[in-house]
Amino acid sequence: MKLEVCSFTGYKVYPSRGRTFIRGDGRTFRFLDSKTESLFHQNKNPRKLAWTPIFRKIHRKGISEEVAKKRTRRNVKYARAIVGLSLDAINARRNEKPEARSAARAEAVAKLKAARKEEAAKKKAARTAATPQGGNQKFSKQQARGAPTKVKATTR
């Protein structure tokens, strides 16, 4: 037993019931009864007729039980080791006291500053070694770039 579905209302159409309409383009429409067929041919919208299931669904009519509040899934956190550190090292870092952490940070900053200062001193020494003996002459920026010297006006 094959049940059809009404093209207008969406109700089930049982065998030997309902009406069939085949449009000029070959599309077949099945209707529950002559009423639904008539409304279809009048181009009525089933969403606007209060007795159709489509209207009732859109306007939330006849919902017997209230939908229970949707449960949200809680994210479960896992502690995993990172490529460079083991899980024990990460936990040790996390459980460190703030004073110890700030002291370690200050020490690291001081070490970095000392390294930078040393590097700057090396660069300065290399620069002074590279300049010739008569390096005390002062040049303007234009002279350093090789610009021609300005000629003084002789007439006036």
Automatic annotation (TrEMBL):
<feature type="compositionally biased region" description="Basic and acidic residues">
    <location>
        <begin position="113"/>
        <end position="122"/>
    </location>
</feature>
<keyword id="KW-0689">Ribosomal protein</keyword>
<dbReference type="InterPro" id="IPR056366">
    <property type="entry name" value="Ribosomal_eL24"/>
</dbReference>
<protein>
    <submittedName>
        <fullName>60S ribosomal protein L24</fullName>
    </submittedName>
</protein>
<comment type="similarity">
    <text>Belongs to the eukaryotic ribosomal protein eL24 family.</text>
</comment>
<feature type="domain" description="Large ribosomal subunit protein eL24-related N-terminal">
    <location>
        <begin position="1"/>
        <end position="66"/>
    </location>
</feature>
<dbReference type="InterPro" id="IPR038630">
    <property type="entry name" value="L24e/L24_sf"/>
</dbReference>
<feature type="region of interest" description="Disordered">
    <location>
        <begin position="113"/>
        <end position="156"/>
    </location>
</feature>
<dbReference type="GO" id="GO:0022625">
    <property type="term" value="C:cytosolic large ribosomal subunit"/>
</dbReference>
<keyword id="KW-0687">Ribonucleoprotein</keyword>
<feature type="compositionally biased region" description="Polar residues">
    <location>
        <begin position="131"/>
        <end position="143"/>
    </location>
</feature>
<dbReference type="Pfam" id="PF01246">
    <property type="entry name" value="Ribosomal_L24e"/>
</dbReference>
<dbReference type="GO" id="GO:0002181">
    <property type="term" value="P:cytoplasmic translation"/>
</dbReference>
<dbReference type="GO" id="GO:0003735">
    <property type="term" value="F:structural constituent of ribosome"/>
</dbReference>
<dbReference type="GO" id="GO:0003729">
    <property type="term" value="F:mRNA binding"/>
</dbReference>
<dbReference type="InterPro" id="IPR000988">
    <property type="entry name" value="Ribosomal_eL24-rel_N"/>
</dbReference>
